[in-house]
Amino acid sequence: MTGRRFRDSARGSVTEELVLWRRLDQPGHEAARLTFHDPFWQLSGMSVFAHAGRPCRLEYLVTCSAAWETLHAKVAGWIGNRWIRLKLSTDAEHRWLLNGKECGDVAGCIDLDLAFSPATNTLPIRRLGLLSGQRAEVTAAWLRFPELALQPLAQAYQHLDGGKYRYEAFSRGFATELDVNPAGLVVRYPDLWLAESPAG
After folding, report:
1. Taking the mean position of all CA atoms in its chain, how far away is CA 78?
2. Could you give the CA distance from residue 191 to residue 200 in angstroms, rounded to a whole number?
3. Collapsed DSSP state (helix, strand, coil) of residue 144
């Protein structure tokens, strides 16, 4: 299910996009909300799913600049009986901190990629603004799941046409085609996530 509410951000109001995904590889759902509060973009959501036979619940809030560069993020919830509370931040030189500890391996990364969610594919898609046929390689600060540690993940996005993108994650030997809506949120992630259709 997706829905949107656009307002004039120049007058200090909100641009909003909502999406509800169903997980395809195991039981689970995720709801996300993309909003613009001048001069920041905020991507928030909650993912509820099964992992290793245990229920998991993770909430997140990612704040980006107007140019879609990640500034800071929070992740909280639980994985089975393990409680999670993470604070991530990055400075103007793209040096990353995770719960106050510097993560040198991801220094220079601009985008945050949450491994448990399709939401953060939106960040490089919006930041790059690729025209049809264009392709770009990026390295994201990837929050692995279930370890929840940051590591660099080399990726590529190619805008195929309209709302279709080819996505590659080189070190994982992974490639797929994503369908996204006009806000840049994924609506179809083959074999993993699908946006629910509105009722009726």
Report:
1. 19
2. 25
3. coil
- The pLDDT tens digits for 113-133 are 999 999 999 999 999 999 999
Q: Which residues are within 8 A (CB) of 111 and not within 5 positions of it... i.e. 6 or more apart?
A: 70, 120, 123, 124, 127, 138, 140, 141
Query: Which residues 6+ apart lie within 8 Å of 55 measured at CB?
Result: 48, 49, 80
For residue 41, CA distances in Å to 27, 77, 87, 103, 123 come to 30, 22, 17, 24, 10
Cα–Cα dist 38/173, whole Å: 38
Q: Which residue has the tokens 């590529």?
A: 156
Helices (H) and strands (E) in the chain, counts: 1, 16
User: Which tokens hold the place of 63?
Assistant: 């704040």
* Whole-number pLDDT of residue 1: 57
Both structure tokens of 91: 């400075």
pLDDT digits (tens, 9 = 90+) for 186-198: 999 999 999 996 5
With a cut of 70, list the residues of the chain below it in pLDDT: 1-14, 197-200
Residue whose C-alpha is closest to residue 140's, from 127, 154, 130: 154
d(CA 115, CA 195) in angstroms, rounded, equals 17
What is the C-alpha separation between 150 and 57, in angstroms, rounded? 19
Tokens (6 digits) for 145: 């799941």
Q: What are 60's strand-pairing partners? A: 45, 75
Instruction: Say whether pTM exceeds 0.85.
Output: yes
